[in-house]
Each structure stands twice: as C-alpha cells, then as structure tokens.
Design a protein that fits this description.
Elements: H1 15-36, H2 38-68, H3 75-83, H4 88-112, H5 118-146, H6 153-165, H7 170-194, H8 207-239, H9 249-257, H10 262-285
Helix pairs in contact: 1-4, 2-3, 2-4, 2-10, 3-4, 3-5, 4-5, 6-7, 7-8, 8-9, 8-10, 9-10
Length: about 290
C-alpha cells in the first residue's frame, strides 16, 4: 500500500511524541535524583521513625484498653498522649515535618518505579501515591495536635455515615468504602504473610534479618486485621442503617474488646501494632536505595 513503511522499519516518532518521551525521561531522572538525595532520605527516615512511634503508642494504648477499658487507641490518641508530656508538642512538630518529608519521598518513588507491564506499573504507582497521601494525612494531623488542636476519628466516621445513610445512594457509598478499607487490610495481611514488605528494605543479613521479618510479618498481619474490622463496621452501618456502628481504628479495637475473650484478642492486636512500629524503625534504618 502506498505510503506504508517498508517491512521491518519502524514508524518515526512525531516531534510531539519525542517531546513527551523526553519529558518522561527527565521526570524519572529528577525523581531518581530526589529519591537518592541525602536530605530527602533523612526526612524519609525520620518520617518512618515517627510513624513507628505512633504505631507503638497505639499498641500500648490498645494494651491498656484491653485490660482497663480506658484509652483512645488510634492515631489521634497516640498523638494526644505524646503532646500531653513536657516537650511533647515540639516532638510532634518534628514528627510532622518528618512525615511530610516521607510523603515527598514516597511520591518521588512513584515517579521512578518500574514494572514488566503497564497494568502493574499503574498499580504500583497508585500504591505509592496512596502511601504518600496517607503519610501526608498523618503529618497534617500531627501538626493539628502540635498546635493544640484535636480530632476524633470515630465521631467523624459516625457523622459521615449518618450523612451517607440520609443521602440517596449513600448506603452504596458506605458499603464501597467498607470494601476499600477492608481490601487495604487484606492487602496488608497478604503483604505480611508473603513477606513482600522486604522489597522496601535494603539487604539485611544474619540474625537481624530474622528479627525484622518477624516484626514485619506480625505487624502487617495484625494491622491488616484491624483495618478489615474497620471496613466491616462501615458495612454494618450501611446494612443496619445505624451510623453508630461505624468507627475508625479506635472503634474497631473497642469492638474487638467487647467480643468473648476480647481482652486476649485485643492484647494480641496490641502486640502486633508494637511489632509494626518496630518494623518501621527497622525500615528507617535499612531504607531501600
């Protein structure tokens, strides 16, 4: 056919396509440079350590909740406990800065990630962007507490659920939200059981490798189970049209505490959160290059 290129020859790129390809290459090189930047990596390490502290505090508060019925075992409760101590607000300000730096580092990682297929590449980038938004959210919450503010995740979840129940199509939104949160929990369980979290770590050898694996497996699985319960609570709020059923992490852990042998079950989850916090400290020390 006239105008067709000879067999075996590729069709030359248009100037616009060349510019797009060049822009992608430059963006990836910039992301690679930012990811390896010492300052950015130090912020990422401090953010991971700060997240580790928060999860460790959640575990300790959950342990108290299991045996005394007192405490708010979520990010808000952990941050409130930290700011209540002398110098705690300054510590939380520092944690907020580290968390926001970690969000930036995770976003640059999304730009440079590679994959064998376009679908896998899209999934990995969405996952990194989601992590970045999550770290930024915790960082902003930390800033609120450091400035003397407060937040109630359970109350916010119930208000949102109440509004959704009263809105046409809102029941479907709640069920979808519960499915997404539960799916994230399931992803964490799989990540822990399969030990896929090791891809985020530099090479570790000897006994330390075994210790970090134990922290990672127990931490990921138990946090995943807690998120599955949070998702189920949103679904329950939708199914029974009862906004009081919904709640955040604290509500999920209190729900576990109310079950038969709940104190023992919640103790196991509390220990898991402490393990997850220790894993995050290990990840800060063995940050992947």
């Amino acid at each position: 056919m006239a105008g067709s290129p000879p067999t075996g020859e590729s069709i030359p790129q248009t100037p616009a396509a060349d510019r797009r390809a060049e822009a992608r290459i430059r963006a990836k090189e910039a992301a690679q440079h930012a990811t390896q930047n010492r300052t950015v990596r130090n912020f990422a390490r401090s953010g991971l350590a700060a997240t580790g502290v928060v999860h460790g505090m959640i575990g300790l508060i959950a342990l108290r909740l299991a045996w005394t019925g007192e405490g708010e075992a979520d990010q808000a409760g952990a941050l409130a406990a930290l700011t209540a101590n002398w110098g705690g607000a300054l510590l939380v300000w520092g944690a907020a800065g580290g968390l926001l730096g970690l969000a930036v580092w995770q976003l640059t990682d999304a730009a440079r990630v590679t994959a064998p297929s376009r679908t896998t590449l899209l999934w990995r980038r969405l996952k990194d962007v989601g992590k970045s938004l999550g770290y930024a959210g915790i960082g902003i919450t930390a800033m609120v507490f450091a400035a003397g503010g407060h937040s109630d995740a359970d109350r916010n979840a119930q208000i949102f659920s109440s509004e959704m129940i009263a809105t046409p199509g809102g029941i479907l939104v709640l069920i979808t939200l519960g499915g997404v949160v539960g799916g994230l929990g399931g992803g964490l369980i799989f990540r822990g059981a399969s030990q896929n979290f090791r891809e985020d770590l530099a090479t570790i050898s000897g006994a330390m490798d075994t210790v970090v694996r134990i922290f990672g497996v127990i931490g990921h699985v138990t946090k995943g189970l807690a998120l599955v319960v949070v998702g189920l609570l949103f679904v329950a709020a939708a199914v029974f049209t009862d906004a009081s059923q919904a709640g955040g992490l604290d509500g999920a852990l209190k729900h576990l505490a109310g079950l038969p042998s709940g104190s023992i079950l919640l103790t196991v989850v509390a220990v898991g959160f402490v393990n997850y916090g220790l894993y995050l400290f290990a990840r800060a020390g063995y940050l992947r290059h």
